[in-house]
Design a protein that fits this description.
alpha+beta, 5-stranded antiparallel beta sheet
């Protein structure tokens, strides 16, 4: 009887070992699905606004009734300009493809005149000409129609594709770098933190 029990136990253990690849403890075939996620400054805008109710040292800004410190000692009904910003959650996968989720617009500062607001905006959004890595160009065809694209690697590390015409395809076909115009969007609380966005081809 003891011999029969031992044989059965051996058979069961062998079966478990043979099916080990299907157990939840086996990770030899699992893929690395980790992705890098970061929050970056995305955009700014100037909005013509009106002061609403005064609440202590704060004020509401119309038309959305958003609360902002009344640093300019404004009165209800005063016309002001506000600087608003939008940030983004940028997720980059192993293939350097980016997924972007944008936040809502948020108030950060008020101004008595538009010129002062524009001065800050020009500092936070800077246009630059530079060379970026050109991953390559390719052409697709669908129902006798062809489209060409260039794949660029931005300073942030993520890759984007841009449609190009035949002349630009020939220009970029054998190059490793492309001369482009980027817009650097800087964080208003940490100027060294910036995100570069493609804004066109530089001549």
């Amino acid at each position: 009887m003891m011999l029969i029990v031992l044989c059965c136990s051996f058979i069961l253990l062998s079966a478990c070992q043979n099916n080990d690849s299907s157990t939840v403890f086996n990770t030899s075939n699992s893929e690395d699905t980790t992705a890098d996620t970061s929050r970056v400054p995305w955009d700014y805008r100037i909005v013509d606004s009106t002061v609403g109710d005064l609440i202590g040292s704060d004020m509401t800004v119309l038309p959305d009734n958003e609360l902002l410190p009344n640093d300019g000692n404004y009165a209800t009904g005063d016309k002001i300009w506000t600087l608003q910003y939008m940030d983004a959650e940028l997720t980059t996968d192993a293939d350097k493809r980016g997924d972007i989720r944008l936040s809502a617009w948020q108030l950060i500062k008020s101004y008595k005149d538009e010129a002062s607001a524009k001065k800050d905006l020009e500092r936070l959004k800077v246009s630059v000409k530079t060379d970026v890595n050109l991953v390559g160009v390719y052409t697709t065809k669908y129902k006798d129609k062809t489209r060409s694209f260039a794949v660029l690697e931005l300073p942030s590390g993520n890759r984007i594709k841009q449609p190009i015409d035949t002349d630009m395809y020939k220009t970029l076909e054998k190059k490793k770098k492309a001369n482009v115009i980027l817009e650097e969007v800087h964080d208003f609380t940490d100027y060294d933190l910036a995100y570069a966005k493609f804004r066109g081809w530089a001549k």
